[in-house]
Amino acid sequence: MKQIRVLLIEDHFLARMALHSVLSGHAQIAVIGEASDGELGIAMYREHRPDVVVLDLRLPRVSGFDVIIALRKDFPTAKIVILSNYQGSEDIYRAVRSGAMAYLTKDASGEELLNAIQSVHRGLRYLPHVALDRLAERTPAVDLTPRESEVLVCITQGRSNQEIADELGIAEKTVRIHVSSLLDKMGARDRTQATIYALQRGLVHFD
Question: Which positions bear 4-aspartylphosphate (predicted)?
Fold first, then answer.
């Protein structure tokens, strides 16, 4: 099985060493680099192009939020797992809005971190229930039909209209109608914003 190449961006030495030890103990993971600040982390990403980044938010020189923005700007498919001491709704919202695909707190188990890395590597989001609950606190729920909810889940997985049509066994034109309807109900201007709103409002769930 091909190893998942992971870059660690964490400013605390002991925390970084602990992460390295935990991840290196799994045959599927290869830690290919470590950075102690955001600026160095960005440079190391450019050099090594890892499969997944494990990133702290509170970093010297360049914050974790700005690292996410910088990486996603130049590398739109960059896959980022946040590992932070903070679990406030604003931190989670900003991280996900900026492009992070997973958000864990530092009391997460090694197994949960591994699951998050594997999920993100497959292109899936990984948000524990506590993170989803924090996001849901920000805005009220909206009323989608069962079919619109199915389409929304597919949208959050990054699927195209044709892929959604194939998955649900309906016409692509019908998918477009559902997408237009759910965007209107959610007050979202596009699919990316719909994904953020869906996470905020607890309309989709990721294990």
Answer: 56
In the chain, the DSSP E strands lie at: 4-9, 29-35, 52-55, 80-84, 102-105
Helix (H) or strand (E) holding 194: helix 191-200
For 4-136, CATH number? Answer: 3.40.50.2300
The neighbour count for residue 118, using CB atoms within 10 Å, is 16
Q: What is the pLDDT of residues 7-54, one digit of tens each?
A: 999 999 999 999 999 998 888 999 999 999 999 999 999 999 999 999
Distance in angstroms (rounded) separating the CA atoms of residues 98 and 30: 26
Domain ranges of the chain: 4-136, 146-200
Domain 146-200 maps to which CATH number in 3.90.550.10, 3.10.580.10, 1.10.10.10, 3.20.20.120? 1.10.10.10
pTM: 0.66
137 backbone φψ class: left, alpha, beta (φ>0; ψ -120 to 50): alpha
